[in-house]
Amino acid sequence: MIHTVFPVIVELSKFILFLAMILVCVRIVRGPHAGDRVVALDMLCMLGVSVTALAAMGTHAIAFIDVALGIALIGFLATVAFAAFIEYGARHHDSE
Q1: pTM: predicted TM-score of the whole model, two decimal places
Q2: What does the pLDDT read at residue 76?
């Protein structure tokens, strides 16, 4: 039974992740504030981790787990860097 259900679940998960990526990209483009864009970019990184984990499950390749960890680390560091950049811009703007 699991051998017949698993491919259906994988295909459904691919579709849901693709739809979520489209919506996140729309938020990145149309976000009214920089904070919204940063959160959407972080979400896009986490969706990339999800796609990589789905690929690891589908192909039974352990190397995809290392790639997922790398994407998560880069996404976290990018979010922290963008948050510091936004905070610096707010401080610089308030001091003028």
Answers
A1: 0.82
A2: 94
